[in-house]
Specification:
heterodimer; A: mainly alpha; two-stranded antiparallel ribbon; 19 helices; 61% helix; 6% strand; B: 9% strand
Chain lengths: 594, 188
């Protein structure tokens, strides 16, 4: 890294850490129903919203009702989005006259956005109308993020409350998260992004002349739109000259900002945050990384405030930071050294395949670890073209269960499940009843934590295995050999952990991936979410056990290190065999010069 | 079933707020403060006609123009209706063959010495408007010869089309290929 890159990276973490405390306190106040500086502006609208929707603010829910409200809301969201995608051609704001999605693609896309995954088997600029992007996709970016935050707040209340079965009201938590946290931050962020050149308009696409006309070979198609082949089976092409090019437009900035802030990740355009209209300058790049990590980072402080000891939050944030920085260091190291197979051809420089020049290499790599450590999945570089070890970093961050900052809400609740397991294992080792935050950890909490942590892993391994023995699924791979396995593994890891980024060479818009992927996204989102709420319910009912001499302090460095170790051991035991067949083999092949 | 009413009404309300009011407000403010950026940072010719966006690259292969990075956009390079990367893995034999042929094209055009990696590796968006300063430098001799200009004059234009680090820290210095080529054409 050059000096500028060091300054950029260090400055980034300083800004992030400075924002954690004020935003964390603000969010705690919002969710505890206290007055904030936005209350005079937003409270009347908030109350009106409850009246219209028939919600009683003080009508607290037990875990089952909370979970039911969450699941039901998501079901309604799914139906609405599915309908928008299927009826796109009849709806307004469609200047390019895009047709409806196929049902398989609509199913996959609707589930993808409702589950906060934002896996995209379509390409935005040639398939989605402005109405679909705004009223369909962007709305779900808000509410799926607010849903994740509501769930973690319910879990935190489970730790903080005593001898009650009540966890709060889902509708109130979801509404407050959207109105007080997501919307104001999005508004500020969107305007900043426009200042950098992110577009925000409703124009039809614009056609401009090319300075130099370009001749290229275009595959000839038959009447049905299938590529023609000659007698030898080679595709028939015709020479075409392009004299002009069409530049897509749209309300991008308003969607770009919530895509990162809500760790959603669904790009307006196919190239996602690598597209110059989504991410035009190094400063927009800086802001976008910050937006990805901001809420997941600050939620650790909210957690600390609500359980009465901010240091509990700092301990978890420390673990996240440690894993993030370590991942960044490895990725930066391997990408700087470039591709030895190209060096043989006389090429000099870092591996720039699938990277943009306006972001520094360190900035690009920081985006990659931030987007996969959280469940964001926006990309500013194409992960498929990273060096093999480089590609293993985002893959591993996803496989660890999206806890390195993690998705908004979902990251922290999965991390808390890991903390419960870490406390339990250490309790076994020192022979004491395990306690976390004054609550005894018993059979039910252990079950729910294990379900939370292992669901995604089990889904990933089983579905990747099925893909390997299904010929049409294997045919989707873009690169041969070990790299192809990495592509499939990455696809299911990304969907089951609700990340949404891809080793995008894989042709995922086929029935196999659309349908099994939908299943992976549903299981990966709702099984842990309901398990977490069940754990919250049982924790809330327990009495508080004051710390004694035998209690393991969970707000100190040794616990943070222990928790890191537990996370790495669980991750390695689950995925090491699969990783060694994919990226590790490929790296060895590449270094061997083959 | 008590929760059905809020589920449906919340969806409708938030669709209106987050899908209607919010983007409309952002658009309104953007048009008021940053109208050029909001509309796509278009470059206009003397008559005011839009001839391309400063943010979106264009394809060039003529020796008299600076060449951009390879592009993996669908159909043809720098087709902004088909943004995307090659997604080639680093050990893919087809990919290595393609890179070798790109290196050959550059060698044939007179580039000796190390080839800057950005000139033979495609960008993520397929629309990257920039090349590195090194990649511009290795092309100066060719462009100067094709246009019958002195290398000093071309070098000066390269410097003018170079974007520095933002706030002196962020990003890397880089050359905007479309802006540079338009400057070259404007000299005639």
């Amino acid at each position: 890294m050059n000096m500028y890159e060091w300054v950029e990276i260090i400055f980034f973490f300083v800004v992030l850490l400075v924002l954690v405390k004020p935003l964390g306190i603000f969010m705690a106040r919002v969710y505890q129903g206290e007055r904030t500086f936005l209350s005079p502006l937003l409270a009347p609208g908030e109350n009106l919203l409850y009246r219209i929707c028939g919600v009683e603010k003080d009508d607290e829910m037990d875990w089952k009702r909370y979970a039911w409200a969450m699941v039901l809301f998501n079901l309604v969201l799914f139906v609405a989005l599915f309908a928008i995608l299927m009826l796109q051609h009849l709806l307004p704001l469609n200047p390019q006259k895009f047709p409806a999605f196929s049902w398989q693609l609509a199913l996959n896309t609707a589930i993808s956005f409702v589950t906060n995954t934002n896996w995209q088997a379509y390409s935005g600029e040639t398939a989605a109308s402005y109405f679909t992007q705004m009223v369909g996709l962007a709305v779900h970016n808000f509410v799926s993020a607010a849903t994740g935050m509501a769930i973690v707040i319910a879990l935190i209340r489970g730790f903080a409350r005593r001898k009650t079965s009540m966890l709060g009201n889902f509708w109130v938590d979801m509404t407050r998260g959207t109105l007080y946290i997501l919307l104001p931050l999005s508004l500020i962020g969107a305007i900043f992004l426009v200042s950098q050149g992110v577009i925000q308009n409703f124009s039809a696409y614009k056609t401009v002349p090319l300075v130099q006309a370009i001749t290229y070979d275009k595959p000839k198609l038959d009447d049905k739109g299938n590529p023609l082949k000659d007698a030898k089976g080679n595709p028939v092409t015709e020479s075409v000259t392009a004299k002009e090019v069409t530049i897509p437009m749209g309300p991008v900035a308003s969607q770009e900002v919530i895509k990162e802030l809500g760790t959603n990740g669904g790009g307006f355009f196919n190239a996602n945050s690598a597209h110059p209209f989504e991410n035009p300058t190094p400063l927009s790049h800086f802001l976008e990384i910050l937006l990805i990590l901001l809420i997941p980072g600050a939620l650790t402080y909210t957690f600390g405030v609500m359980v009465g000891n901010p240091r509990q939050g700092w301990a978890l944030l420390g673990v996240m930071l440690l894993l993030l920085i370590a991942s960044f260091a490895v990725l930066q190291g391997v990408e700087v050294s470039g591709n030895p197979l190209l060096a043989k051809l006389g090429v000099q420089g870092a591996n720039l395949e699938g990277k943009e020049l306006r972001f520094s290499l360190a900035g690009t790599n920081l985006f990659t670890v931030a987007t996969t450590g959280t469940s964001c999945g926006a990309v500013a570089a194409m992960h498929d073209s990273l060096t093999p070890m480089g590609g293993m970093i985002p893959l591993s961050l996803i496989l660890l269960g999206e806890i390195v900052f993690g998705g908004v809400g979902s990251g922290l609740y999965t991390m808390l499940a890991f903390a419960v397991i870490a406390v339990f294992v250490s309790g076994l080792m020192i022979g004491r009843t395990p306690e976390y935050l004054g609550k005894k950890i018993e059979v039910r909490e252990m079950w729910m934590s294990i379900i939370t942590i292992l669901t995604a892993g089990i889904v990933v391994l089983i579905l990747s295995g099925i893909a390997m023995i299904t010929p049409p699924a294997a045919a989707s791979m873009a690169n041969p050999g070990a790299h192809g396995l990495s592509e499939v593994l990455y696809a299911f890891a990304s969907m089951a952990n609700n990340n949404g980024s891809a080793f995008a060479g894989l042709n995922a818009n086929v029935n196999f991936y659309n349908i099994l992927g939908s299943l992976a996204m549903i299981l990966g989102r709702y099984v842990p979410a309901v398990a977490v709420l069940a754990m919250a319910g049982s924790l809330a009912e327990k009495k508080y056990v004051p710390p004694s001499l035998g209690t393991l302090p969970t707000d100190k460095v040794p616990f943070a290190l222990w928790l890191t170790l537990v996370i790495l051991i669980v991750g390695a035991l689950t995925f090491f065999p699969a990783l060694s067949l994919g990226p590790i083999v490929e790296q060895l092949t590449m270094l061997g010069g083959k | 079933m008590k929760e059905i009413r809020p589920a449906i009404l919340m969806l409708i309300m938030f669709s209106a707020i987050c899908g209607g009011i919010y983007p409309a407000v952002v658009t309104g403010i953007s048009y008021a403060i940053f109208p050029k950026e909001a509309k796509g940072s278009f470059i206009t010719d003397k008559s005011g006609k839009e001839i391309g966006s400063a943010l979106i690259g264009q394809p060039f292969s003529d020796p008299k123009y600076f060449w951009p990075r390879p592009s993996a956009a669908t159909d043809f390079g720098y087709n902004s209706m088909g943004s995307g990367g090659s997604n080639s893995g680093p050990t893919n034999p087809d990919y290595l063959k393609m890179v070798a042929s790109r290196v050959k094209t550059l060698r044939d055009s007179g580039v000796s010495g190390p080839v800057p990696s950005d000139l033979i590796q495609a960008s993520a968006s397929g629309l990257d408007p920039h090349i590195t300063q090194e990649a511009a430098n290795v092309q100066i001799a060719r462009v100067a010869k094709a246009r019958g200009m002195s290398e000093e004059r071309v070098t000066k234009l390269v410097t003018q089309a170079t974007e520095e680090r933002r706030l002196s820290i962020f990003g890397e210095p880089r050359v905007n290929v479309l802006v540079l080529n338009l400057k070259l054409d404007a000299l005639k």
